[in-house]
Amino acid sequence: MTGQGKGAVPLRRDWTGWLFVLIAVSAIASVLYASNMANSGSRHVHARPVVPPANVVPQVAPMVLAPVTQDDARAQNAEIALVTKGFVAARPFFYAGSGDARLRARDCLAAAMIYEAGDDAMGQQAVGQVVINRARHPAFPKSICAVVFQGSDRTTGCQFTFTCDGALNRRYSTAAWTRAQSNADMMLSGTTFAAVGLATHYHTNWVRPYWSDSLEKIAIVDTHLFFRWPGYWGTPGAFRGAVSGNDAPIAKMAALSPLHAMALGMSGDMAGIDADAAVGEAKVVSGASTGEGGSRDTVYVQLDRRAAPESFVTTALRLCSDKPYCKFMGWTNPALKPDSDAMSETQRAAMSFSYLRDDKAGFEKALWNCSEFKRDDARQCMKR
Question: For the chain, which terminal residue's Cβ has fewer other Cβ atoms within 10 angstroms, N or C?
Fold first, then answer.
């Protein structure tokens, strides 16, 4: 009872005062802390801006190999350090277009995947990721087909070797091609291959491209080495470019993809045709220079009357190769095939097939003699 006497009241009054003091001090401290953190955060944001460097985007070097043996190339490639710092997987990619444009993009991507990696799902996805990474990067063209066939019009400029070394004349089985198309379709629908990150370059370990010394090796998949650019151009901020959803047709895809063939006014039933079976004697006559290291070549060919008329296109593409300008003319009647432009009206009227490519003018067209070979589309017929 004594403990609850006169001394108890002043004690409660003292604790109440201290409580108000503590609350006030805590509030002031909280305000000061928040202000300090805000200022500190502001200073941090402005200290390291994530913006593109002032200089131009990096130049894309052609695939030029150092003259070393395969064993030396393997040894030198093994000495390049694997950079793991800052490794980031690519964001999912969703193709913006639909219909025929999407199917053309799918077939371009599938061609890159199967001709670069063979009938191997993991290797194909690694190649597909590099193609997509390139399409997003400002240093490369902005469509899937344009990335795959970049530089394919020059023997030393192609970025993917299969587009200019004649590999497209070979054919995989229908089942293998269908698998590649399926894998490409998945890559255009959000599937990523995280193992190669933001790589924009790759090569096998038994070759030594000159550009490999200037890039960062960031991944190894089987016998392939994958690289990115150093600095900003290898970071996620550089991969923000919009990719076209309207892929244009590619002439070199015509024999492999009906979607490309039909868009070029050619037959859509050309896959699997053997171009060699459709050509006999051929003569190439060089004309004036194009001014770009090439000439305005004209190819005069004897064609096999028994061959499928669609095969004439693959013959023309093979013989014209990567020439920026090429005129191809074929006759099934060897007696009427001329050796130059100095032909008679009878010889001109007997022409069975013609193909003209002029890269500078952006023109490409294949035409048949429809009195000899019936075509469903009259636009494919020579004018008489």
Answer: N
